[in-house]
Amino acid sequence: MKKSIGARTFLYPMPVFIVGTYDDNKKPNICAVAWGGICCSKPPSVTICLRQATYTYGNLKARQAFTISIPPESRVKEADYAGLASGRDVDKFAVAGLTPVASEVVDAPFVKEFPMVLECKVTHIVEIGLHTLFVGEIQDIKVEEDCLTDKGIPDITKIKPFSFAMDSMSYYSIGPFLAPAFAIGKDLMK
């Protein structure tokens, strides 16, 4: 029997996005975000949610652009740090030993050392309550060549992203292959 635990912020899996922005002085900043995901296929769009108190919130409002760098398992420490410190106080790129790269298509930096990046322009901002939802239209996706399949699309087994678990405040790797999507369920179709 299921037990009610009330209305809370539990959902699995939660991504680990490293959001890149510039401040008013063009200083690059990164922020860890777990509340977000793909929200539209045409135009291709993604969402992220932030509290108004964050440094990144102000950067997003001012620049109307951001990147999402996908950290690999091997960079969990750097990704965690991006969510602990504030860019108001420190240069998170420098402290984490990461390299900012200026996007050529949006006014935001991305993380050179991470294998995949989405470059987005802000198209919608929705004030929800404590958090604000930013919708970004994906302008381009860049992926390290050795992390692509032979069909030229990102390979999750090579990128090695990880997820965040709210219950234990922990990170988890992505598990093994289970079954082909849009195929295994066909056995149940009549």
Automatic annotation (TrEMBL):
- Give the matching InterPro entries: Flavin_Rdtase-like_dom (IPR002563), Flavoredoxin (IPR052174), Split_barrel_FMN-bd (IPR012349)
Q: Residue limits of the Flavin reductase like domain?
A: 11-164
Write down the required cofactor(s). FMN
Q: SMART domains attached here? A: Flavin_Reduct
Q: Mitochondrion: is it a keyword of this entry?
A: no
Q: Which organism is it from?
A: Desulfobacca acetoxidans (strain ATCC 700848 / DSM 11109 / ASRB2)
Q: Which domain of life is it from?
A: Bacteria
Q: What keywords would UniProt list here?
A: Flavoprotein
Q: Return the protein name.
A: Flavin reductase domain protein FMN-binding protein
Assigned protein family: Belongs to the flavoredoxin family.
Quote the SUPFAM superfamilies the UniProt record gives: FMN-binding split barrel
GO MF, one example:
FMN binding
